[in-house]
């Protein structure tokens, strides 16, 4: 019997306790692959986030580098945060064909990925976060109606208050009989403006209140930033990050922000960083801020703690400075421990020879932003990015992008690595400048290998 028929029969007869019948819904279909969501798998976890299972069905099987066998279906269990529009992958399963499991793996480092409007992940998020029929939908609609009514009430009160204010101001401005100061003559075609102050108030005040509740580009500075996405220049630039969202406040108020100008460090015998990197499959994404490469199966160990490598990405020029010097680019290797602590290894890049690992990344750049390229049958060895001399600077800092969370252990390798002028030019065409300016040191301790 075909695996699909066998699985359906088991579901219908409920011969296997606890087995959930999948309800696969096609989310996207294009030549070569189909993306589906199992609606029956959607559920809330203990944190209130939504967990769901999805899969990609390939028309042609590809080789799995870990087993040297082929697979055609990849299932993933993802956790979606409907409020912040992000998701993370909890588990992946690889199938030779329908119902024929090849292998599965739990994702040790669960990276929160933003969901971009109009992309495939956005379609999945909307399906997962759609209110269920019945009580959930009614409750959601009721809450929305309450919010609308509340906003309407506040708007009405503000309108009335402003109308009264305008009427009062108009009465105060009405000239008394004793006043002889000349008034501006109306244009020949204009109508008499005896009641103009009150008449204008009825419409213009409402528009004025609406603008205060729904800010436009000409609104007050505090409101203007509310709808601007963070970037490296303009209104969304680094100087305004702290104003864009409440959760970005640390970008402006933090005392342990990164990057910094690394100087005047204590030269001591630092423990060597234990790099345990191995070749692994990878995927490349242009996330709108940089080129990012996601990998798995590698980690570092330092001070009795292990940090799993989640991804690495690039900045031009280097964000960190060393004794005032800026470098052509930098690669940030982001690691996370089991208790959620972050450690970032920075590899400074200077113009020189072509770098083979960077070229592998450039060879697989996606054609569209927020699209992922997962080269079939290819692996990447991040150890190639490391210099021979592993001495380093270290200090406590933050993420260099919003929300600028602090408590990040920074490990900046002293020896630079080369990158060719051609490789630099390719990145520069995508990102002319994507580096946060150096931040105040606030008397932080900096240590360096001697």
For the terminal residues, how far apart are their CA atoms? 68 Å
Helix content: 10-25%
Q: What structural class should be given to the helix and strand makeup?
A: alpha+beta
CATH homologous superfamily descriptor of the largest domain: Alpha carbonic anhydrase
Give the overall form.
globular
Q: How many beta-strand elements?
A: 22
**Number of spatially distinct domains:** 2
- The stretches of 5 or more residues where confidence is low (pLDDT under 50) are 12-19, 173-223
In percent, how much strand structure appears in the residues? 25-35%
CATH class of the largest domain: Alpha Beta
State Rg.
29 Å
Largest sheet features:
13 strands, mixed
CATH topology of the largest domain: Carbonic Anhydrase II
Mean pLDDT: 81
Identify the CATH architecture of the largest domain.
Answer: Roll
Short description:
With 450 residues, the protein is of the alpha+beta class. 24% of the residues lie in helices and 31% in strands.
What does this structure look like?
This protein has about 450 residues and is α+β, with helices and mostly antiparallel strands. The chain has 2 domains: about 5-130, Surface-adhesin protein E (Lipocalin), CATH 2.40.128.710; about 255-450, Carbonic Anhydrase II, CATH 3.10.200. Helix content is about 25%, strand content about 30%. The protein has 9 helices and 22 strands. Strands 9, 10, 11, 12, 13, 14, 16, 17, 18, 19, 20, 21 and 22 form a 13-stranded mixed β-sheet that branches. α3 packs antiparallel against α4 (about 195-215). The longest helix has about 40 residues, at about 135-175. It is globular, with a radius of gyration of 29 Å. The termini are far apart.
